[in-house]
Amino acid sequence: MRIDRLEAVQPPTPGSPGDWRTQLGQLLVRVVTADGLEGIGVGSGGAAGVHIIDTVLREVVVGRDFEHPAEMHEQLCRHTAFYGRKGITVMAISGVDLALWDLFGKQAGKPIASILAPDVDLTKSLPTYATVWDDEEAHASIENGAIAVKLHVERFGAPPDVDGIVALVSRTRKALGTEKAIMMDAFGAWDVPSTLQVARGVEQFEVDWIEEPVQPDNAAAYRQLMDQSPVPIAGGEHEYLSEGFQYLVDNKLHSVLQPDINWCGGLTTLVQIYRMAELAGLRVCPHRGSEPYALQAIAALDPNPLAESPRDWFTCLEGASMIHDGRITVPDRPGFGVVVDQAFWNG
Ligand SMILES: [Mg+2]
Fold it and tell me: Separation of 215 CA from ligand 1 center, angstroms?
């Protein structure tokens, strides 16, 4: 396969949160072959990501022959290794990798899930969980048939109001009943003592995990939490490439790995993460798993699928599946099954 064109743009995302996701912006990537077949990918990093693609990644991809996206991924990582093994560079590589996989699927005439697992049954829907920011959203998602709910609890401060969190989890457990799952996300805001206080307080309500209780690189804190927390510890949405995840696995820093396919290095990296997690006996639960890119990987590779609700402000992809009664169907169109308006591209 040979790529004739590689383009990247920052799409408008009205309503995106007022943090780095808006400040940096998002990234749409397109690769086009000489025959006019195109692949679409999503990364992150906005104008900075576009700059990396235009100035560095393009020369790796355009005009080169390759058999499989993983070969190109290795070249992209080698080419950027001296300055970009984490963060925006890898977010840009993710967009390119996903565009190449999309093209690969379209050329084969198969959905990505069927390429990863030839006997996958795409008529079966997958269970999802709803990430909610307050009681109102929690109630709405429970009314809409949510199978599981993840509560954002960083709003309880740092150090956190432990009683407030315990009361919230108690109310949510009462509303959900005993069958459905509850998780919590602290956005890296706490320290070890306050995380342990929260974990001991909510343990009685059977919480499936506490996500990112401390900052992503605080390995010593995660090691201590893995030893002492009665609630499993999750993380990894801010980790990059297989080397980064191998460090988390080898050092036993998380019970649940949560790579983001649009940030961590794309599908090539996510496939590697599923493989290492299987060997280590760990669960993978991709960040924002019901968005079109991660969904194909979850359908094909996940023995315990649970797809997180999507970003409602990222609306430039047409063809994304919607969640109904807590479940989502996986598109069976070739590639990732998404289309973007041609008006996004520069020319
Ligand atoms: Mg999170």
Answer: 11
